[in-house]
């Protein structure tokens, strides 16, 4: 192997490590995490497993403002899980943003367990997610929305 081949292999390995380090599994997201990636739309449900974690100081699409576990042991329905998630996220909104949910211009989405993750992974986690509120689900911003009163 010549020197150029070895350097090329090392660069590829380093880039792979960096890329993997920047990815985040939605099951590990917690309050204060900012990320880019697939966004859920309140009009329909989308299965999402991986997102790109970034510092909140860098441009990003979404921020987790709360996460909590549902206490239920038996799957009831997707509507039930979503409803319980929405109730819990709404209750935690003002503490993070600094203004009542009803007065806010921000968009909220809820990442909740699917029937498959509930049964196969014992997933009970709800992640409450903020986006800019401009109506553009792909809008980027820098900085946290914590205490933004928006």
Can you give the helix content as a percent range? 25-40%
The structural class is alpha+beta
Biggest beta sheet summary:
6 strands, antiparallel
The coarse silhouette is globular
Would you kindly provide a brief summary of this structure?
The chain has 150 residues and is an alpha+beta fold. The chain is built from three helices and six strands, in the order αββββαβαβ.
Provide an overview of this structure.
By secondary structure, this protein is an alpha+beta fold. Helix content is 31%, strand content 21%. It has helices at 3-22, 78-97, 115-121; strands at residues 23-25, 34-36, 50-54, 62-69, 107-111, 125-131. Strands 1-3-2-4-6-5 form a six-stranded antiparallel beta sheet. The longest helix is centred in the N-terminal third of the chain and has 20 residues, at 3-22. The chain starts with a helix and ends in a 19-residue tail after the last strand.
List keywords for this structure.
150 residues; alpha+beta; six-stranded antiparallel beta sheet; 3 helices; 6 strands; 21% strand; globular; disordered N terminus
Give the helix/strand layout.
Elements: H1 3-22, E1 23-25, E2 34-36, E3 50-54, E4 62-69, H2 78-97, E5 107-111, H3 115-121, E6 125-131
Antiparallel strand pairs: 1-3, 2-3, 2-4, 4-6, 5-6
């Amino acid at each position: 192997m010549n020197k150029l081949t070895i350097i090329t292999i090392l660069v590829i390995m380093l880039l792979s490590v960096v890329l993997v380090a920047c990815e985040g599994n939605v099951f590990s997201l917690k309050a204060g995490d900012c990320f880019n990636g697939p966004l859920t739309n309140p009009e329909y449900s989308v299965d999402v497993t991986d997102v790109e974690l970034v510092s909140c100081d860098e441009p990003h699409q979404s921020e987790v403002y709360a996460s909590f576990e549902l206490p239920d042991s038996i799957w009831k329905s997707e509507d039930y899980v979503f409803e319980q998630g929405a109730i819990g996220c709404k209750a935690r909104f003002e503490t993070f943003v600094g203004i009542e949910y009803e007065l806010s211009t921000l968009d909220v989405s809820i990442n909740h367990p699917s029937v498959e993750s509930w049964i196969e992974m014992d997933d009970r986690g709800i992640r409450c997610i903020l986006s800019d509120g401009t109506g553009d689900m792909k809008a980027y911003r820098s900085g946290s929305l914590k205490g933004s009163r928006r």
